[in-house]
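User: structure tokens for Coronin, please.
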Amino acid sequence: MSPPTSIWLWPPERAASPPLAFPAPQVWQIPDYVPMRNITEPIVTLEGHSKRVGIITWHPTARNVLLSAGGDNLLILWNVGTGEMLLTLDDMHGDLIYNVCWNRTGSLLVTTCKDKHVRVIDPRKQQVVAENFEEPIALQEMDTSNGVLLPFYDPDSSIVYLCGKGDSSIRYFEITAEAPYVHYLSTYSSKEPQRGMGFMPKRGLDVSKCEIARFFKLHERKCEPIVMTVPRKSDLFQDDLYPDTPGPEPALEAAEWLAGKDAEPVLVSLRDGYVPLKNRELKVTRKNILDNKPPMGPRRSHSTCDANFSRPSLEDLLEEIRSLRQTVQAQEKRISDLENKLCKFTNGTA
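Assistant: Done. Predicted tokens:
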């Protein structure tokens, strides 16, 4: 289960130690408060792959369990809370791993590979449960592009989004239990191709705007959000669009899952995230400026200089500004020291 204050970035912008032969996944913790300085050091570096890591995915129910897949055709499961390697799944893939996905409880995972095999794997038994299905239940021809497809499935709406790496479109389909199983919905197209794609968890969407999906499209030098919405005019919470969905709290500890225990994800309601339209309207109150009468007193020309505003008073003002600047700098240093101490307590190092 992904911690709400952590994100992943690699390769690192700056390494605290000599650079690795291949960039390793790193954990960067984003604090709940607004940081006063740039965050340059990761809290955990996961070293174990011999080639570049291209896939990472959090376990759906166990705390801090992460799976990574690299160009070495290797699957590694980590406990990022301790930085230790839990399991290594080797000799299962003879070629490059294209994608990895967990089932709902995290008891099994499925992989697609360049060797055109689909494998269902029990990671704790370290064995392939099923492989190379005979015939697909549905076949959908996309286009002639040879780019790798990045699938994102939303179980709440039964919609699968297909993003082609190097492509500039997102195609989405509804999945049903009856034939023909796959129903084409629409295509989102843009001018620039995507180098990668991220998917916002359901609990991060704006339910007031009937937002059902949000992607983060990776360009060469920027990350662009792409929002999918359902056009509805009702001001009520849309129960059919937002059933209870997996929340941020894990159902298991890493050790419990590794010992063989399974659990359903802990669900949360998105109703509290709904803000009725009438409460979100911008209200502007205009005052009649004629109601503010000017104070009575002698008039004077705007060009008349105040005799009291002389050079000594200006020097006093500048001196006060210098003193305030020194005070602010001292407080910034104190805040930075407190932040460092807080990070140590949070990481369990103090």
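User: Anything notable?

Assistant: The first helix runs from residue 254 to 258.
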